[in-house]
Every structure is written in structure tokens, then in C-alpha cells.
């Protein structure tokens, strides 16, 4: 049974290894796996006493600490499905309560666990979601419970929406086992390896890649909170005097290069750092190079960079450049970025000195697919495209999740049944149509980003429908006269706004609003005119088609709004 492979350590803990939790004073608090397993099983006993049964959904609203670790695996030991909910970060109380309530409304948990400080917000969210009772404070029974049989789902992983309704990805035990095995294999995990991470546990890369996988293998784990990293990024880097593996989005490597001074790393030997995964956002080579130049004097190898591609709907990992080689960066011709057409590569190089300053227009390859996680590129009609042609990335294999919970439907990302494999020879199975644009070049997958309905900002999906509603307020135009699309590009994130009007006096206010919502690094193009918005027979805007028409000069009544 797949769940046994992920929960086996609860019965057979290695007391010689464990989790070291970062403390606020700069130190570490260590607990071995024997102590953690005992606490998790006592937590399971308390959960069972509270009525939790195998297959039930339990929502967990806890900060990253040992109580969270013990509670997480306590839920699993009780045979239930875990749904980790983010603690409040930058949202105000009302926005946070609305977000959590949307999750609870779908998840319908039998229990919502919250720490004392988060219980008031969790209680408000429960009431808004129509759930009876109060949040359950983490606790442990006197005796350790036996590990219970598990239900079908291991995790309910809610996608990170903006103000839109979040959707829970159903991750089965089989999905999770397959993906953890893929991560361990492609990352080159060896017995005795150590992982260091600051990633939040409610996000799939932090939860599955840097928490569940190393703990299920009983690796030593150094676990920091995100605020520890933001305050002192050098602390994370110093972990790699002993740690060998980590993962982080591109902005984290650039942040380290800006904030960390060489004197903070004096005496640290980083030559044993074998894997630094990069994912969750489009990867620009400049961020990697400035990080490598900072750490090269301390033994860091550029070959340790492992650019990767993945998403919650595929459990996590899809591809990773796990060969010991420098990442490959390419600069496609923007004029060639049309679906079904060849991508013209203007320049390419391996990561090195020439990568410095190579931000705009450059993207980094994210590795080659493994046989058990087939990846294909399809055109708009569902036909498979050859290497070098741009299309939608479609993923199959055992990591492809069965769908969204409670009948929720995706926007850009969809699920389907169909043939797997780039050659079509893998048989039939579940497919994830990712909503991401990409192509293969020299056998590696290159990802341009979302195709039309959302844009990734700091690892979170911001949906264009939410932006359209806000723009309608700012411009006083009706929603039907506004369409926003994410624009696939190389090494950048872009949004195009089409507005059915010849008046653009509002353009400056909209640009300022969008900068606040999606960041300064997102390129915003505002197009005004008449007859711009084209729709499908069902009334949905043809977002990407409109952008391609404008880019190719086929919208005669369109013009760019004034700056």
C-alpha cells in the first residue's frame, strides 16, 4: 500500500536522525524521529478520541513549528487526509478569514485544528463557511495510537489563488508516493543526506519537496520559517556546510545575492551542496548567476542548480534538470512565439559570466521528462507537436492527480483522460492539461508561463477575472468591455488589457493598481479601441487569440493606450 511507504517511519523511526527547527534567537532545536513519531502517534490518539476516522478531511492552521510537524503526521497516523491552510502573512484579518472560509467551505473538514493565536480567525472562518463547533487545539493522548488504515486521499492541496475561489487538488497516496520517489530519484538523494528549507509548508514545493519527501526517507532536515529567511538569508546558506539539498523560487536566489555579504559566510565550505532546485516561477539566468558569483569563492558549483517545473495538479514535480551540468539559457525570438509554430532561438549559452544582465527575453531549461512522468506539447486542437514547436504542456503518469475536490473546476489547468507519453506509447491514464505554454529544445523543457487565464506572482496564481473586476471599478467601464490576458513571454511575465473604448484617461490609474497587485516586474500592455474583444460560441473571451491578433497587426481599430 502506497501510504505505508510514506508513513513507515512512524513505526520504525531512526533515532539517529531528525528535524532541527530554527529558533528566533539564531539557534536550532533538534528532535529525533523517535520523539517525533511518538508525539505524532499520541496526537493521532487524541484525534481518534475526537472522532476522526480514516478518509476524513482535517484542516490544519498552524505556524511552522514542532506542533505542526507532530500534528501533520498525527492526522496521517489517524488515517485521515491533511489539508494545510496558510497562516496569515500579508492579508488583513477580513481577507484572511474570507480565504480560509472558502477553503473550509469546499473541504468540509470533520475537524479544523488551529493554534491558540490563530483560533479566533479560524473560528470566524468556520462560522462563515457554515461549520459548527470551534477550532480544535493541538493535543496529545496519553498513549500512542496504532497507525490506522488510510483513506484514498493523502492531501487536499489548495491552489494559491488571489481573491478568486481556491480549488483543492485531490492528491492520492499513489500520487504522493510516485512523486516523492521521483523527487528522491532525480534529486539524487543518498542515505545520510540533509535537507535545509525555509519554504512555507502550505505550498506544494515546501510541503512535498522539502518536508514530506525528506521525512519519509528519514533524512536530517533543517526547517526554517519564511520570516527567518527574509530577516537573515545568510543563515539559510550557512546550512549547506552540512546540508546537500534545497529548493526555492528564483526570487530567493536573487534576494540572497542582494542581501548576503561575503563576510557573513567566512569559513563556510559549500562544496558539498549538490542540489539547489529552482521552481515555482519563470527562471531568469541573471538571478542564478549573481547567486553563483557570490558563493563560488566558498565552493558552490553552478552544476548544483537544478531548474525544475511542476504544479500542485501533478502532485509537485514534473521535470528537473538533474544531470550534473550547468543550466542552459535560451533567448527566443518574441515574434516567433505563436502556438503550433517553431520557436526561433536567437541565442543560447550555459550559465556563466555571460548570463549576468541576461534577464529580459531569456529562459532556462527545466530538464528532460522521465519515462514514468510523460510530458507532451499539444496545439489548440490537441495534436502532439514536435520538438521546437510552441504549445500547451500536458503531463501524464502516476503523479497526475485525479482532479479538484468537491466538483470544483479549473480555469487554465484542466484534467482529462487520454494517452500518455510524448510518443503516445505509455497507454491511457489521467492527464493534466497545465495551461502553461512551453516547448522542447535539445531535449529539455522550456516553460514560458501561463497561457491566458492567470499569472504567477511570487508562487501564487493571480486570476485575470479578479483583475478584470478591479479594473472595471477603476475605469468605470462594464466588465463586458474589459478583457485581461496573461501573455506568454521569455524570461518575463506580461499582462495585456483590452478595453472597448477610445478613451484612455484612466490608463495611468490602472497601471498603478496593477503594479500594486502583481508587482513592478510584470510588463503591462493596455490596448484600447472598438471591436477588440472576441468571444467563443459560449461567450468566453478568446484571450490568447486576441493577443496574437494584436501582436500580428490584425486588429485594425486597436491602439496602445498613452503612458
TrEMBL record:
**Which part of the chain is the AMP-dependent synthetase/ligase domain?**
26-405
Instruction: List the lineage, top down.
Output: Bacteria, Bacillati, Actinomycetota, Actinomycetes, Streptosporangiales
Supply the source organism for this entry: Actinomadura harenae
Q: Which PANTHER family match?
A: DISCO-INTERACTING PROTEIN 2, DISCO-INTERACTING PROTEIN 2 DIP2 -RELATED
What family does this belong to?
Answer: Belongs to the ATP-dependent AMP-binding enzyme family.
**InterPro entries annotated for this entry?**
AMP-bd_C_sf (IPR045851), AMP-binding_CS (IPR020845), AMP-dep_synth/lig_dom (IPR000873), ANL_N_sf (IPR042099)
Provide the GO biological process annotations: fatty acid biosynthetic process
GO molecular function (one): adenylyltransferase activity
**Know the name of this protein?**
AMP-dependent synthetase
Task: Please give an example of a GO cellular component term from this record.
Answer: plasma membrane
Amino acid at each position: 500500500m502506497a501510504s505505508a511507504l510514506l508513513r513507515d517511519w512512524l513505526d520504525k523511526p531512526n533515532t539517529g536522525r531528525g528535524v532541527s527547527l530554527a529558533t528566533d534567537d539564531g539557534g536550532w532545536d533538534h528532535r529525533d524521529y523517535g520523539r517525533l513519531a511518538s508525539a505524532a502517534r499520541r496526537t493521532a490518539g487524541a484525534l481518534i478520541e475526537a472522532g476522526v476516522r480514516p478518509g476524513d478531511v482535517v484542516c490544519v492552521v498552524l505556524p511552522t513549528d514542532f506542533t505542526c510537524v507532530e500534528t501533520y503526521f498525527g492526522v496521517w497516523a489517524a488515517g485521515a487526509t491533511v489539508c494545510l491552510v496558510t497562516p496569515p502573512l500579508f492579508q488583513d484579518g477580513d481577507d484572511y478569514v474570507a480565504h480560509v472560509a472558502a477553503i473550509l467551505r469546499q473541504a468540509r473538514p470533520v475537524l479544523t485544528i488551529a493554534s491558540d493565536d490563530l483560533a479566533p480567525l479560524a473560528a470566524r472562518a468556520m462560522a462563515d463557511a457554515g461549520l459548527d463547533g470551534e477550532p480544535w487545539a493541538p493535543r496529545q493522548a496519553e498513549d500512542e495510537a496504532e497507525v490506522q488504515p488510510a483513506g484514498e486521499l493523502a492531501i487536499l492541496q489548495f491552489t494559491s489563488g488571489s481573491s478568486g475561489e481556491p480549488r483543492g487538488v485531490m492528491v492520492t497516496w499513489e500520487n504522493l508516493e510516485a512523486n516523492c520517489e521521483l523527487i528522491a530519484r532525480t534529486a539524487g538523494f543518498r542515505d545520510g543526506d540533509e535537507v535545509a528549507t525555509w519554504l512555507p509548508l502550505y505550498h506544494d514545493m515546501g510541503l512535498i519537496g522539502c518536508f514530506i519527501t525528506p521525512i519519509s526517507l528519514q533524512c536530517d532536515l533543517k526547517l526554517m520559517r519564511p520570516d527567518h529567511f527574509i530577516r537573515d538569508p545568510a543563515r539559510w546558506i550557512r546550512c549547506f556546510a552540512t546540508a546537500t539539498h534545497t529548493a526555492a523560487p528564483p526570487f530567493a536566489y536573487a534576494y540572497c545575492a542582494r542581501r548576503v555579504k561575503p563576510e557573513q559566510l567566512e569559513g563556510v565550505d559549500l562544496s558539498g551542496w549538490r542540489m539547489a532546485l529552482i521552481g515555482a516561477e519563470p527562471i531568469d539566468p541573471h538571478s542564478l548567476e549573481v547567486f553563483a558569483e557570490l558563493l563560488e569563492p566558498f565552493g558552490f558549483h553552478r552544476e548544483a542548480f537544478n531548474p525544475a517545473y511542476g504544479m500542485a495538479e501533478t502532485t509537485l514535480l514534473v521535470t528537473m534538470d538533474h544531470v550534473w551540468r550547468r543550466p542552459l539559457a535560451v533567448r527566443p525570438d518574441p515574434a516567433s512565439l505563436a502556438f503550433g509554430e517553431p520557436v526561433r532561438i536567437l541565442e543560447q549559452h550555459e550559465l556563466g559570466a555571460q548570463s549576468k544582465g541576461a534577464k529580459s527575453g531569456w529562459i532556462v531549461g527545466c530538464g528532460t521528462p522521465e519515462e514514468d512522468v510523460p510530458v507532451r506539447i499539444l496545439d489548440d486542437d490537441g495534436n502532439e507537436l514536435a520538438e521546437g514547436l510552441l504549445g500547451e504542456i500536458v503531463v501524464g503518469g502516476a503523479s497526475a492527480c485525479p482532479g479538484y475536490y468537491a466538483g470544483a473546476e479549473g480555469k487554465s489547468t484542466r484534467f482529462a483522460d487520454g494517452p500518455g507519453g510524448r510518443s503516445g506509447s505509455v497507454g491511457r491514464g489521467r492527464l493534466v492539461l497545465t495551461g502553461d505554454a512551453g516547448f522542447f529544445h535539445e531535449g529539455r523543457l522550456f516553460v514560458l508561463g501561463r497561457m491566458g487565464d492567470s499569472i504567477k506572482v511570487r508562487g501564487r496564481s493571480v486570476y485575470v477575472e479578479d483583475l478584470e473586476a478591479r479594473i472595471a471599478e477603476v475605469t468605470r467601464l462594464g466588465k463586458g468591455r474589459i478583457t485581461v490576458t496573461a501573455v506568454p513571454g521569455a524570461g518575463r511575465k506580461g499582462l495585456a488589457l483590452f478595453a472597448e473604448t477610445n478613451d484612455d484617461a484612466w490608463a495611468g490609474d490602472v497601471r498603478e493598481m496593477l503594479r500594486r497587485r502583481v508587482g513592478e516586474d510584470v510588463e503591462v500592455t493596455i490596448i484600447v479601441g472598438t471591436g477588440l474583444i472576441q468571444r467563443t460560441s459560449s461567450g468566453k473571451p478568446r484571450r490568447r487569440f486576441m493577443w496574437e491578433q494584436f501582436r500580428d497587426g490584425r486588429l485594425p481599430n486597436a491602439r496602445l493606450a498613452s503612458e
